[in-house]
């Protein structure tokens, strides 16, 4: 009787250990096969700083699309990850253009667009070491400085809207190669006759940015608050 009871207990223990080992194996396999598209603890950061060269490309039936030709610029961006890969930040940059239609726009040779805005966005992780992000501007402003060869010029102002898509590759720890496409629109307050108002009330252009992004920290802002 005692032998049978001991045998039964031994069988139950062996079965229990075996079941637990199988569960651990299944959990490990799930962990290994997980595709962290939305979030990955091992690749969480607190913030990031990026700097990029940008190539502006004008388009559309408006004063920028018809009169400007892009010739380069730069962009600087600082961002904090608030929760997981959702971030807020600040963007500053400028795009340089040549005036290729002086009869339409006036007697100045070039224009520089200064771009300042807040930024919100999210970054996805489709592949190891690869990040795919989307972002949009908030409270954006643009200043257009028009100048001629002698240095004299004037300024125009407007509200900036931006939507961007980024692709990054981490080639060394915390340092990414950055490729970004931006769609930009400026709603201006340029004073012109009424018949030209629709042509000058907004300008549109795209930018293609190539640069570097440095990530720092290992926990999002809300996670630090919970410590």
From TrEMBL:
Keywords: Signal. It comes from the Bacteria. Residues 1-21 form the signal peptide. This is Outer membrane protein beta-barrel domain-containing protein.
């Amino acid at each position: 009787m005692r032998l049978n009871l001991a045998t039964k207990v031994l069988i139950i223990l062996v079965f229990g250990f075996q079941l637990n080992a199988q569960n651990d194996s299944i959990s490990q396999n799930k962990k290994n096969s997980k595709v962290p598209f939305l979030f990955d603890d091992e690749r969480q950061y607190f913030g990031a700083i990026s700097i990029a060269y940008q190539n502006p490309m004008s388009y559309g039936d408006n004063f920028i699309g018809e009169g400007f030709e892009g010739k380069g610029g730069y962009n600087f961006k600082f961002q904090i990850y608030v929760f997981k890969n959702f971030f807020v930040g600040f963007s500053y940059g400028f795009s340089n253009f040549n005036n290729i239609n002086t009869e339409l726009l006036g007697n100045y040779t070039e224009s520089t667009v200064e771009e300042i805005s807040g930024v919100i966005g999210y970054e996805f992780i489709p592949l190891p070491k690869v990040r795919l992000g989307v972002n949009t501007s908030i409270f954006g402003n643009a200043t257009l400085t028009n100048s001629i060869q002698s240095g004299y010029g004037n300024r125009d102002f407007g509200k900036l809207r931006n939507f961007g898509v980024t692709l990054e590759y981490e080639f060394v720890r915390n340092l990414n190669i950055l490729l970004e496409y931006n769609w930009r629109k400026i709603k201006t307050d340029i004073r012109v006759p009424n018949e030209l108002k629709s042509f000058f009330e907004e300008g549109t252009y795209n930018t293609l940015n190539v640069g570097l992004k440095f990530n720092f920290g290992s926990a999002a802002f809300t996670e630090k608050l919970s410590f």
